[in-house]
Amino acid sequence: MAEENQVDNAQEKSPEFAIQRIYTKDVSFETPNSPSIFQAEWKPEIKLDIDTRSAKLGDNTYEVILSVTVTATVEDKVAFLAEVQQAGIFTIGNLSEAQIAHTIGAFCPTTLFPYARETVSSLVNRGSFPQFNLTPVNFDALYASYVQQRAAQEAAPASTETH
C-alpha cells in the first residue's frame, strides 16, 4: 500500500505536456501591386513580425497562437504580404507558474513555428514569387529578453512629480 501511494504521488508530480491539436487559425496573402511588381527587378526587402498570445481554456489546457507576418517590398512597393496565425491547444500541468509561462512563451511557439514557416513558404510559392524560407527563430532567447524587460520595468522606480 505504501508503494502504491509513492507511485501515485510520483505520477502526480511529474510534469505534463501534450499537444492536443495544431491548426491554422487565420491565413492571408496579398499582392497589392501585381502584376506590375513582377516586372520589377527582384531585390526585396523583407520585414518579419512575430507575436504570440495565449488563453487558458480550462484546467491545464491552453491555446497558444503564433502570428507571423512577412512583408516583402521592392522599390518601396509591397510585393507581397503574408500573414499566418498558427495555433495549438496544449495540455500543460504540474509545473511552477514560471515554468508554465516559459512553456507557453517559448516551447509552444517553437513547436508551432515549423507549421507557420511551411504555410508562409507555400503562400509565397503559390503567389509565383521566388522560393522563400523563414530562418529559424530562437523563441527561448526572445522569451528571456521579454522576461528581462519586464523585470527592468518592474524594478524601475515609479516617477514622482512634485508641484
UniProtKB/TrEMBL annotation:
Transmembrane segments: none annotated. It comes from the Bacteria. Its main location: cytoplasm. Pfam families: SecB. It is found in: Cytoplasm. InterPro entries: SecB, SecB-like_sf. Keywords: Chaperone, Cytoplasm, Protein transport, Translocation, Transport. One of the proteins required for the normal export of preproteins out of the cell cytoplasm. It is a molecular chaperone that binds to a subset of precursor proteins, maintaining them in a translocation-competent state. It also specifically binds to its receptor SecA. NCBIfam families: PRK05751.1-4, secB. Belongs to the SecB family. Homotetramer, a dimer of dimers. One homotetramer interacts with 1 SecA dimer. This is Protein-export protein SecB. It comes from Colwellia echini.
